[in-house]
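Exercise 7. Predict the joint structure of the components listed below.
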Amino acid sequence: MADHTLNRRDNLPIIARMGKVSALQFTLWVVVGAVILSSIYAVSPSPQRVVDGVPRLANLMGRMLPPETDPQFLGRVFWRLVETMQIAIAGTALGVLLSLPIGWLSARGISPFQPTTFLFKALISFFRTVPDLVWALIFVITVGLGAVAGTMTIMVDTIGFCGRFFGEAMEDADKDSQQALEAIGASKFSILCGAVIPDAMPSLINTTLFALEKAVRSSVVLGLVGAGGIGQELKSSFDLFQYRKAAAIMLAIFLIVLVMEWVTDKLRRSLN
Amino acid sequence: MSILNVEQPAVGGERIAPKLHTRVPSHATRVSLLSADGLCKSYNADKPIFSNICLDVKEGETVALIGSNGAGKSTLLKCLIGVLPNNGGEISIFGSGFSKAPSAKQAKQIRSDIGFVFQKHSLVARATALTNVVHGLLGRPGSWRGWHHALAQNTWREAALDALDSVNLAHKANERVDQLSGGQAQRVAIARALVRKPKLFIADEPAASLDPKSGHEVMQRFVDLAKKNNITLMFTSHDMQHALQYADRVIALKSGSVFLDQNSIDLTPADLKAVFDG
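Solution:
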């Protein structure tokens, strides 16, 4: 028995612990490691700076507590929160509405203008890659301070997010039903409305809910650059060193984001 | 219903037992609805899919196109209705002729007179049965309202419900297709083809994705509807029982040409065996 085991082991091939690494691969690993380490060295906080920051953080926390509970102030915060939600909802709704045609025009095999799909993909990528605070600055300059600039920012941000996922969901929609309608003589638009959208609907709704969640988070900070909402109140509280008010606003933001995530999560679960 | 088994009785020249539905014995006097003369198709010049195909389908006929896998049945079907271009030969359909491919206007006209049924039902799974049948009218004037039954005009909704009733599924009109069985879904697909009031049903392996019992139910209903409404039916099948039981005529493809074109009532097991041998 022992001999048999010995023979079997002798016949088995030797498996290396690691695959062979070429000179190029090794060089690449070294370069990637060097980039990470040099970045950490250049901009990460030193232990001394972290230690020095602790008392200042404790001091700030002390000045923030207890959060402001003045009814007049809380009333103002409430209406700012309502405005924030309005920015998020209106911006998401407009963005989703515009994402549907843009997503359609960017979807390979679905768009009625196949040679130009890459142009719409590029447009969506552009909307997505420019940060929302930069869009907010642009719209504050073009349409002025306030909620309208915030709504337009969320709208463009939503197109960047939903346009991509709507297009992909349309590309992944069941091809058999589309080909059947094409054989019947249905137009591309009829195929979109009759077959592609119904089939992609769960994905479209899921993406919309994520976009709404994202919009609520974005809309609370847009006020920092003057684009309306609760962020504007938060900025003025910090600017005026009213830290107790800032703490109350931060708690309100935390609550509203939490509630929104809970609601969208519930909706997603019921959808699935 | 007794089902013919062509593999078991190896009686060489004996004719197969009579079929269960009413047959039209001769089509010589009927008008030609679809014909092909010298039809060729190849994707690769060295290896034609089929060549010199000549066939003639008469009005009101039920024709089965059989052959082993890869014989070119589906490709021939698509070439005959102009969905795929051919590499040579002439096609005449509904009195209009073309070679290679039909013009855009011809293609639109041809499609408007054909009801398609595919191997997999090819319905919109998340839409209701009624909406799917209304989809059959897309491509007609006013079809922008045909995406959903709730938007469609009353005449369309009534026609769709009638078509569903013809396949005995009016009671399932408001159920989503993904809640129906495979056989029921294929009957909805037949209703979608029927609602167009076509001159010709084209069905590519309509029962291939169904279990034998559902397959026979679907084929029986399909053939009955075609006969009742005087619609010509041309279907592909690799199931000999279906070809013999439901078709008036069987056209067999083998090695890229028409190997057999005969009334199904005259076919012998030896004839069918020869189609798949070699």
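Discussion. The mean pLDDT of chain A is 89.
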